Amino acid sequence: MSMAAQSTTLCGDRLYEALTSRDRRFDGRFFVGVRTTGIYCRPICPAPTPKAENCQYYRAAAEAEGAGFRPCKRCRPETAPASPAWLGTGATTSRALRLIGDGALNEGSVAALADRLGVGDRHLRRLFECHIGASPTQVAATQRLHMALQLLVQTALPMTQIAIAAGYASLRRFNAAFKQAYRAPPTQIRRNNAARGGTSALAPITLMLGYRPPYDWSAILSFLAARAIPGIDCRAGDSYLRTIEINGSQGILRVHNNAARHTLIAELHIGEIVNLLPIVQRLRTLFDLDADPHAANEILSADHRLAPLVARAPGLRLPGSWDTFELIIRAILGQQITVAAARTIATRLVERYGRPLTLDMDLPFENSRLFPDCHTLAKADIQAIGMPGRRVQTLKFFAQAVAAGTLDLDPGVDSHELSQQLLAITGIGKWTVGYIQLRAFKDPNAFPPGDIALLRAAQALGIAQAQPQLQQAALAWQPWRAAAVAHLWRSLAQTKDTTDLVLDCGLADA
Q: Please, are residues 99 and 281 in contact by the beta-carbon 8 Å criterion?
């Protein structure tokens, strides 16, 4: 989208109407700066609505802060869903945003970031100004500030640990950034919010992750529970738990839904404080929090065969992945078998090659482990877990390529380039690559070819009887074909005779 087009989008009476009505469909789509107060807010802010002539609209929080506005303490811009303006950027900008979210600019430079992306730093700055309205450093600074505020208000962590967790290189930089943004030192913000803060330094770190309603939390839990590996993840009542390791620090995550506030609450127990921005980014991917259900539902409902599915589950999301390497391993294990069978094999893999969790706390489930890493699987005798020889070879080749560094799973990797590299591995075909695009990279238009479940669902609904017909029908669902996949899979899973049919199965990848 061009700068001019985006500027047009952010002008006019419609945005003011969304502001006055506090319409949640627009949450995260734009932010409003109020000239008389110098504060910027989400369109759902509970504060009295400012006069139209005092409002200035921005595509992203970083753009508002770059214009000199400071974040509102009532609507908490740091908890807003990601802006669709960011999601609709070009490939290079999207990759850069993933790397910034992973902490690339906490200590590194824009020039180093541009080098990782294969472009010049001046060109990268131009792309950010065009697509986002803020520089890469402004985006990174806003993300750090938002994380720091959340930790300051919701936990009792010492200031030094908050600075580390938010991605600041030093406590001095943290204090300076906070004073500039909030016109007050961090200690004052904590005193003012003491009643709402964490009760103990030993309490879990709480992360609030906003989404646009509707959101079908029950469907997300069911999807993940069906694929849960004992010791790695599980459903516990209305929560999802899993073990994690990031930057060498082990931890446990518990996530539940606060439907009234349209927010997921993630409670993190971690052995050592690390930069938490990559964890937030992974959680947003895993739970598909940046989806725009209204836009997708509008397109899919135009097809009379999909319309009843959308009407029954308007908040349906397709879970992503916590870790790209783990997802690809799971996809290879699950080729052409049922969910239950894939889960059995994955359990054997984890029991044999996963490392025990060593956190000094009561673990939430028995035999808690970490998913095997690439170096372990590259050397392992995987044949022992009972897989076909050809699939063992595929898994070994993939793990060895990642371990050797010839296959890059960096957050900023070009997904098309990675797809071509994966297709070069014997045993990985178009279905597996499509599935990875669907879940690991959250491509809203991904549509895995040759998927048995999709074809059966399409046949049952009278959409298509063969794959070529299905591919043709799916053209009308662009650019939200991934959402169509979620609805078709759900329709099939609800039929009595296919409850155990894998959603992770394909015809092409033997």
A: no
